[in-house]
Amino acid sequence: MPAGAPILSAAQMAAAEAACAARGIVPADLMERAAHAVAREAARFAAGRPILVLAGPGNNGGDAYGAACLLRAAGCDVRVAALGEPRAGAAAAMRARWAGPVTSLADAPPRPFVIDGLFGTGMSRAFDGEAAARLCEDAFILSIDLPSGIDADRGAALGDAIRADVTLALGSLKFAHVAGEAASRCGHVLLDPIGIDVSSSARTIARPRINPPAAAEHKYSRGLVCVIGGAMGGAARLAAAAAARGGAGYVVLASDDRRTPLDAIVHREPDARSDTIADVRTSALLIGPGLGRDAAARAACAQALASDLPLVLDGDALALISIAALAARRSPTILTPHGGEFDALFGAGDAPKIARTVAAARASGAVVIHKGADTVIADPEGNVIVANPPSWLSTAGTGDVLAGLVAARLAVTHAPMRAACEAVWLHQRAAGLAGAALVADDLPMHVPQAIAECR
Ligand SMILES: NC(=O)C1=CN([C@@H]2O[C@H](COP(=O)(O)OP(=O)(O)OC[C@H]3O[C@@H](n4cnc5c(N)ncnc54)[C@H](OP(=O)(O)O)[C@@H]3O)[C@@H](O)[C@H]2O)[C@H](O)CC1
Ligand SMILES: [K+]
């Protein structure tokens, strides 16, 4: 996935495209650039294999006809199969430029390399993809802009959507490249800006810059993280270990369980939880991993919410708080819900995940890390960062590790959105370093290497 790339809705993309006209760049120019970009990538990936171009009735089809012409002119073996005819505009002009035969999808013989130009951002209703599926079955598929059959904003498959090996996004990434079911249908995503000026409050995650501590720093100035644990000691231990490896100067673990994951982590008895939450030296307080939901947990959560400390709320804590109590806080707050915890706190809804996460951040005044295969990070100002963490992270305890990293980065940076993004990046990079079949315990030891890569 391109790092730090803007992400737009289909309507925002159309507006950016329209704004090009003011600079004298008309739709036919953009399609010409799109066709060149598609032909370039197709030639690279096809590597001499016979190419079948699937062309639809809209501008996605126009891009496809343009690429077919360029590839044929470059000496490639190209055939075209179409679904409907472009009726007007730049797409019709591109269609007219193609002098070779055009067959229907049903009549086309399969070829080993397919350029999927059936539908892009204009996909508006379910699509009967049976004929296309036959042609794509054993082929390498390069999708133009989006795999055909995908709702660009929701990332949902409308009928029989195509599953691409490579998707070349044009102009900007769309929500479907990073969110929802569609993200997994895109294969490897490339982006060609084709000269369109794009600005967006939503971007893909990028490697952060993390400086080493200044020479005069000491353990308290580096950031004191207090982890408030409860009945399930393992979760809090994982979080504390991650906080210690994540760059905090000092980590305190107040938990029923006397074991600490590292000798460098200071244990406090659970009856000292209240004093710990009241400790004004604390740079970031983490509450939730393994906390439980009993009366003591509820009281600890209420005290944490009422404090002026920068706060990270995870796991059980997310079930013990209200949006009103969050909104009343004046200090930085970060929430780390997975989908179920998010729905329980903010309500389930039909809107795309990015929009729901922004609404949650606005309502709570907190930075929200809405975890999942597409992790959406939003702040109350509407800024959004999207990450696609490795699927090996879908195992017990990895959320506790993330919570600990979030607390560490909040303690160091004092900036909740920055802290959330740094932590999510470090978490996914540590997972990459840990490799296949990782367990949560493996992650903290890889965080220092991930931090070292952030110079
Ligand atoms: N990013 C850019 O600036 C550029 C993008 N380009 C390419 O343009 C497409 C978007 O083009 P658009 O024409 O808006 O949309 P599509 O090509 O995706 O499809 C629209 C046509 O498809 C018909 N349609 C929609 N759903 C179905 C269906 N289920 N079955 C059959 N036909 C369907 C739709 O018909 P309507 O009746 O709904 O109007 C349209 O005819 C973008 O993705 C890029 O590839 C530019 O080329 C360059 C600039
Ligand atoms: K397509």
Automatic annotation (TrEMBL):
Alphabetized UniProt keyword annotations: ATP-binding, Isomerase, Lyase, Metal-binding, Multifunctional enzyme, NAD, NADP, Nucleotide-binding, Potassium
GO BP field: metabolite repair; nicotinamide nucleotide metabolic process
Domain of life according to the entry: Bacteria
Catalytic activity: (6R)-NADPHX = (6S)-NADPHX; (6R)-NADHX = (6S)-NADHX; (6S)-NADHX + ADP = AMP + phosphate + NADH + H(+); (6S)-NADPHX + ADP = AMP + phosphate + NADPH + H(+)
Residues engaged in binding K(+): 60, 116, 148
UniProt family annotation: In the C-terminal section; belongs to the NnrD/CARKD family.
Function: Catalyzes the epimerization of the S- and R-forms of NAD(P)HX, a damaged form of NAD(P)H that is a result of enzymatic or heat-dependent hydration. This is a prerequisite for the S-specific NAD(P)H-hydrate dehydratase to allow the repair of both epimers of NAD(P)HX. Catalyzes the dehydration of the S-form of NAD(P)HX at the expense of ADP, which is converted to AMP. Together with NAD(P)HX epimerase, which catalyzes the epimerization of the S- and R-forms, the enzyme allows the repair of both epimers of NAD(P)HX, a damaged form of NAD(P)H that is a result of enzymatic or heat-dependent hydration.
Protein name as catalogued: Bifunctional NAD(P)H-hydrate repair enzyme
Classification lineage: Bacteria, Pseudomonadati, Pseudomonadota, Alphaproteobacteria, Sphingomonadales
